Amino acid sequence: MKIVSGPASTELGEKVAGLLGLETVPLASKTYPDGESYVRLESKVENEELVIVQTTSPPQDTRIMQLAFIADAAKRHGAKRVTAVVPYLAYARQDRVFLEGEAISVEVVARVLKSAGIDSLITVNIHQEKVLSKFPFPTRTISAIPLLADYLRQKGYQKAFALAPDRGALRLVEEAAEILGGECGFLEKHRDRYTGQIVTEKKTLDVYGKKVIVFDDIISTGGTIAAAAKIVKAVGASAVCAACVHPLLIGDAEKRIIDSGVDEIVGTDAVPSHVSKVSLAPLIANALKEHGSG
Ligand code: R5P
User: What is the reported pLDDT for 282?
Assistant: First the structure.
């Protein structure tokens, strides 16, 4: 097995290769003046089982095309099998038709990747796991929540209240609470499908004087986390941390979150950023070990 670190996940790919003692295939990549992407594998991949590590955070479409081009180059030059490790899988939230006339974007992405030569895919905390059953190749989603919770436990958040800012994140906080050793709960969030505006219902939560960690899969504009943080601050939480797997942090998301009363934002290197304090490398290395022996 050899690893190619895609342009979006260079450090993560190198870390995974280091942990597994695997050789990496050097990759040349560039963007042409008109915005088109170019990639070239700089060593042989014939008969190899190749793993491409490439996240698809913004600019999503570019990252997806780079991934597809690497897969095509690999198969074209004789790779036996190509596995994509895509820590953040773009378009995963458009996993069904919400309004008449829409596309199921994530299924289109999956078909593009299949036609480029990808044989299987590992991702991390995909928004809705059930969409993976529609992918045209074997897939697996692994959870970064134990790593995040363990990091926070060691940083003084032991027994903190794990709060889901909406029902969709309930499974995340149940997983986190097992490691943190505290309680967990959730809020109700409603999104206007036309404007994207969210409304989070106020709720009485037993968090007075307690440390609270708001867990979500993705932080995009920060609106979801900020709404949840305001609610727990208003009922007396002593400290609030925002934890997520995919810190997209679009525009002024960080300021918005801090202004809502959050003391700290912690994310993973699924999306490299200055809040990516937890590396997914051990989690991915482990998944690849299982993948290889499976
Ligand atoms: C959607 O339900 C997701 O789990 C996140 O809650 C959402 O993507 C966060 O987006 P934003 O930061 O823009 O509120």
Answer: 98
Measured in Å, residue 23 CA sits from the centre of ligand 1 at: 37
Residue 66 CA to ligand 1 center (angstroms) comes to 25
In this structure, the number of other CB atoms found within 10 A of the CB of residue 129 comes to 16
Closest residue by Cα to residue 199 from 169, 231, 171: 231
Of the candidates 12, 13, 11, the residue with the CA atom closest to the CA atom of residue 3: 13
pLDDT of residue 293: 61
Residues of the chain with pLDDT under 70: 293-294
State the angle between helix axes of 105-116 and 60-76 in degrees (0 to 180), rounded to the nearest 10: 20
The Å distance, Cα 220 to ligand 1 centre, comes to: 6
Say what the pLDDT of residue 275 is. 98
pLDDT at 134: 87
Q: Residue with the nearest Cα to atom 3 of ligand 1?
A: 218
Q: ω into residue 59 within 30 of 0, thus cis? A: yes
User: What per-residue confidence (pLDDT) applies to 294?
Assistant: 54
Give the per-residue pLDDT at 202.
82
- Predicted pLDDT of residue 245: 98
3-state secondary structure string across 186-230: ECCEEECCCCCCEEECCCCCCCCCCEEEEEEEEECCCHHHHHHHH
Ligand 1 binding pocket, CB closer than 6 Å: 127, 166, 168-169, 216-224
Which pair of structure tokens corresponds to residue 36? 């088109």
Looking at 189, 210, 211, 277, which residue is catalytic? 189
- Of ligand 1's listed atoms, the one at least distance from the Cα of 224 is 14
Look up residue 244 and give its two tokens.
Answer: 């997520």
Atom of ligand 1 nearest to the CA of 248: 12
Q: Is 155 a catalytic residue?
A: no
* Distance of CA 78 from the midpoint of ligand 1 (Å): 40
The residues with which 30 forms a beta bridge, in sequence order, are 38
Question: Residue 180 burial (CB < 10 Å; 0-12/13-18/19+)?
Answer: buried
